Amino acid sequence: MAEIVIRNLCKQFGAFTAVRSSSFKIEDGEFFMLLGPSGCGKTTTLRMIAGLELPTSGEIWIDGEEVGQKPASERDIAFVFQMFALYPHMNVRRNISYPLVSQGMPRSQVRARVGEIARILGIEGILDRPVGGLSGGDRQRVALGRAIVRNPKAFMMDEPLGALDAEFREHMSQELRALHDRMGATTVYVTHDQLEAMQMGDKIVVMNHGVVEQFGTPRDIYDKPATMFVADFIGSPAMNFLHFHGAVRPGADRVSVHHQALPIPAAREAFEGDIVYGVRPEFIRLSDSAGYRGRVRAAEYLGTTQIVTIETPNGEAKARIPSDQPARPGDMVGLAFEGATVTLFDAQSGRALR
Ligand code: ATP
Fold it and tell me: Which residues form the ABC transporter domain (predicted)?
């Protein structure tokens, strides 16, 4: 088990900076997600923690020891790749026992340990089968078995479910999370799928262009996005951004947008300039009595709810409302908001105003 602390971590490839002064802390036993779009530096960060890539500068602490410049072999970390490389000519038992046999563990101990791992993964019945003919899920379990059999301090997983189809992926992600909860080993997991990160992670780091945009629990990140990038990347449909020019007074719980006093969470800092009123689709209500109005452009039926696209004076907004509530293209509707669910951003820097 391991606590991992990352301090001001940087990685340059020639003149290109792939990771820029990242800092975050992974608690012992956490299921920790590195989330962001393609090329943002997730894999490079993971590889630096595992020791497969050395940092240009910064520190990596594992269990109180700074290991940034140490080779992978001295870190006791298991890496689970997307293209899990199994030995196709060996059976399941030999694939899983291979790391122990190559360490010189006595046969009886190897047998006992492999039996225990097979029980945890529910693959006792296929131990003597060759891996060549196994289904994708069973191959994934065998690959996990081989990674966990050594009982490493922590697991690094780089989009381990990326090659699976959607339905199976959902199933395996639940299985992985349940396995983690049984074993309790610190796990760092790379994904570009925000839903996967929200469902599986205890904590999430959101990265963009090599920079940590935010670090927190899924709830923190969803409810209190630190930047417009995070607000836009997490949630589907994404958070609405209504643009206006105005001022926020310290302690105010309203802000004037297009001649209406719209609710905001009580503000602490004063701000004047280009502001974005950020509100998630599920927190907009349509109400005849609301003074802030817009015209319905489209309604997309989703079963119990519908997504209604509304042209407002400050840009387009999507509202997720019950599908039995009438909203036809062309209708003028009032939009009602609740202050506690709103985030204001400085439009220029993209940072949340708190
Ligand atoms: P993806 O999901 O596409 O793998 P990622 O967030 O994991 O994206 P990284 O693989 O960490 O991103 O790459 C970050 C950036 O660093 C990319 O622009 C990539 O091209 C670059 N990069 C990664 N490895 C190297 C390398 N060995 N040499 C040069 N550039 C690299």
Answer: 4-234
In the chain, list all ranges with CATH 3.40.50.300: 4-229
Is 13 close to ligand 1, i.e. is its CB under 6 Å away? yes
The top-level CATH class assigned to 239-353 is mainly beta
Smallest CA separation from ligand 1 atom 10, residue: 43
- Ligand 1 within 6 A of CB of 40: yes
165 Cα: distance to centroid of ligand 1 (angstroms):
24
Dihedral sign from CA coordinates of 337, 339, 343, 345: positive
Q: Are 303 and 270 in contact (CB under 8 A)?
A: no
Q: What is the pTM of this model?
A: 0.90
User: Domain 4-229, what architecture?
Assistant: 3-Layer(aba) Sandwich (3.40)
Nearest residue (by CA) to ligand 1, atom 3, is: 38
Q: C-alpha 144: how far from its chain's center? A: 21
CA angle 322, 230, 160 (to 5 degrees): 95
In the chain, residues under CATH classification 2.40.50.140 are: 239-353
Question: Reduced to 3 states, what is the DSSP secondary structure of residue 145?
Answer: helix
- pLDDT per residue, tens digit, the chain (354 aa), is 799 999 999 999 999 999 999 999 999 999 999 999 999 999 999 999 999 999 999 999 999 999 999 999 899 898 876 556 788 888 999 999 998 998 899 999 999 999 988 988 889 999 999 998 888 788 888 888 888 888 888 999 998 887 777 777 888 888 889 888 888 899 999 999 999 999 999 999 999 999 999 999 999 999 999 999 999 999 999 999 999 999 999 989 999 999 999 999 987 889 999 999 999 999 999 999 999 999 999 999 999 999 999 999 999 999 999 999 999 999 999 999 999 999 999 999 999 998
Choose which residue among 9, 10, 16 to substitute to test ligand 1 binding: the one with the highest number of ligand atoms within 8 A of its C-beta. 16
